[in-house]
Every structure is written in C-alpha cells, then in structure tokens.
Amino acid sequence: MNEADLVKHFPRLWHMAEDGSFESIKKHGLLSTSSLLDLYDIDGKERLALESKRRGDSVTITKKGLTNAIIRDQKPMTESALKKCLSADVTPKQWFEILNDRAFFWLSRDRLRGLLSARAYRSRP
Asked: Where are the domains positioned within the chain?
C-alpha cells in the first residue's frame, strides 16, 4: 500500500504513549526505541539489552536535562515463538532491532482499545 492509499483508507491513526510523554513528543517528535536510546545517549550492554533482546517489562531511561522516558515491554513476543515464524535468514536479535527502529500506529480505534484493555495496560493512564 502506498502513502496515498493509506491516507485514503485510514485518514486517522492512533498511537499509544505513556502518560506524561506528550510534551517530549511535541519537542522531539514521536521517536522509536532506537531513536530514544540515541537521544538519551544509551549504548553498550544497556543498549543491547533494550534494543536487541525481548523486554519483559517496560524500562525507564533517564538523562540529565530530559524528562524520563519509558520504553514499553514486548511481552507478547518470545524468542521461541519468533524462531518458529521468522524466515531462516532473520534472527530474533535482528527482528528486535528492526522492530525497535520504528514507531507504531493503530489504524483503527477498536484495535487500540484492545491493546489498552490488555492486562498489562488496563490499569494505566
């Protein structure tokens, strides 16, 4: 689908962000996990753990001069499940790096509501 068709069929998009993150999004834009790690100067082993492996829990990152940012968990994805569905030339590590280099939108409000009502998020603003 090209951009024009996407806009034609889905003129509205939704994104789920942590409560309190709107000011940072206005200032820096809606950033992927990888872009947040760049902005917060996170590298080495800490970056590898956040960007190249499954996150079982959300993680708060900090940097002096910036508000705290929360990088959301990836609870539904397990490496064993990924190994079953990824093509032979893509490893789970590569998949997580591809995933973390993107920001995601929902094309329907109902699908977003499904995520918002999931056990991990239903009690969060």
From this structure: 12-116
Alpha-carbon span 56 to 51, nearest angstrom: 12
Burial of 27 (0-12, 13-18, 19+ CB in 10 A): exposed
Which of 75, 72, 69, 74 has its CA nearest to residue 36? 69
Mean pLDDT, the chain, whole residue set: 93
What is the Cβ-side half-sphere exposure of residue 32, based on CA atoms within 13 angstroms? 12
CA distances from 38 to 31, 53, 77 (A): 10, 17, 24
89 band by pLDDT with thresholds 50, 70 and 90: very high
